[in-house]
Amino acid sequence: MKKTPLLIIFLIVFIDLLGFGIVIPILPSYAQRGFAASDFTVGLLVASFSFMQLLFTPLWGRLSDRIGRKPVLMIGLVNTVIGYVMFGLAGSLTMLFAARMLAGIGGANISAAQAYIADVTPVHERAKGMGLIGAAFGLGFVFGPVIGGLLSTYGYAVPGLAAAGLSFTALLLTITILPEPKRAEADGPRISTAFSWKNLATVLGRPKIMVLLLLFLLVTFAYANIYATFPLLATRDFGYSDHQIGFLFGFIGIIGALTQGGLIRLFAGRISERILFLTGAGLTMIGLTLLPLAHHAVVPLAMQTVVLHMILTILAFGSGPGHARRAEHALAARGSAGAGRHPRRQPVARRARAHARSGVGQLHFPGSRTSVSVLHRRRGDAARPAHRMAFPVTHHQHPRRPWP
After folding, report:
1. β-strand pairing of 371-375 with 360-364
2. Pick from 141, 87, 97, 132: nearest CA to 113
3. Residue 403 within any structural domain of the chain
4. Where in the sequence is the domain holding 307, given as residue range(s)?
């Protein structure tokens, strides 16, 4: 594995996501205090970023296949910089919506970053390279909200301009020191990120994979609500300031990172994937159910803050969809385990195996911190891709077991 390009792309993604994390804790209160937005409008504002990612992630991925990874990363970062400057200088709610949508368009270049890593890593080390994206996400969501909360004490323009400065720094790094990956660098075919409805239908045609994706969608949908609703609840019910909310988001990020990086690795070889998945989803359900009740009359006023922190700890241990990521990988592997046993039913798989030695198809859900890997295995053989996925895809090597 060539470490220099990987470290550079990690630094670029981390700096960019740090800027994204900065605006998370202040966005709802910014919209309401600055522009008298309703709760529903705040929800739309938060969703607008992810909606643009949903639309543009496959487009950026396809464009990166044609013109290269580096140009797409640069285009995305330019959009992000402009979006954050507009965020800081917004004079109306319409301008704030435009800023978030433009930032979402720029943030959709994460598929190009994943494809870049796939291009510069040999197949057997690709999983480690992809882990850098997850690490960048985790660190960005730990430090970003804390920084954003602190900067909000100087006005809402400061966090937005700070995020713009970070993304501009990432843009300069991309222009000056990030090399464009060569097709021959990777030990395998260059990864395509093109969208295909036909391939989407192929994925959904596998019942177990379809159920897994549905479960993942539901958990992600439920957990994503916290980004819009928690700042409103914390401000309205507990009187928290923006910088206190930022620290609470940082607290969730730290506990979640420790859970995913430590506890999950500890239990992975001892507890079944299904139990891990249900545990993560169950903790998320409990935390989200109890969150609005922390300020209920049955909770003594002196205990409400303690109860709130306990509920956030439960949520953090659940870590939303991220807690069950390894379980999802394994469940997906089981759901598609028969792919290689019936070659007549898998014409696409045969064509894919003719062009690639091995890999895992990773579905990145725009606006989410996580992805689902779909592993295809033949009896007695290494993991192999069965088809090009319908969503932005990266292929990376896993050992014979779904996780270490």
Report:
1. antiparallel
2. 132
3. no
4. 3-180+189-324
Find all residues with CB under 8 Å of 387, minimum gap 6, and list them. Answer: 199, 202, 203, 348, 349, 352, 361
The Cα 395–Cα 192 span in angstroms is: 9
The pair of structure tokens assigned to 172 is 């300069």
**What pLDDT does residue 38 have?**
93
The CATH number of the domain holding residue 134 is: 1.20.1250.20
Domain for residue 386, yes or no? no
More confident residue, 106 or 342: 106
Q: How far is CA 11 from the centre of its chain?
A: 16
CA neighbor of 208 nearest in space, from 339, 402, 319:
339
Q: Which residues have C-beta within 8 Å of that of residue 111, sequence separation ≥ 6? A: 57, 58, 60, 61, 64, 193, 364, 392
Q: How confident is the model at residue 2 (pLDDT cuts 50, 70, 90)?
A: low
What domain count does the chain have? 1
Q: Cα separation of 358 and 299, whole Å?
A: 54
Pick from 324, 229, 253: nearest CA to 284 = 324
Q: Is residue 355 part of a domain?
A: no
Highest averaged pLDDT of the listed ranges 74-83, 309-318, 337-346: 74-83
**Do 262 and 312 contact (CB within 8 A), yes or no?**
no
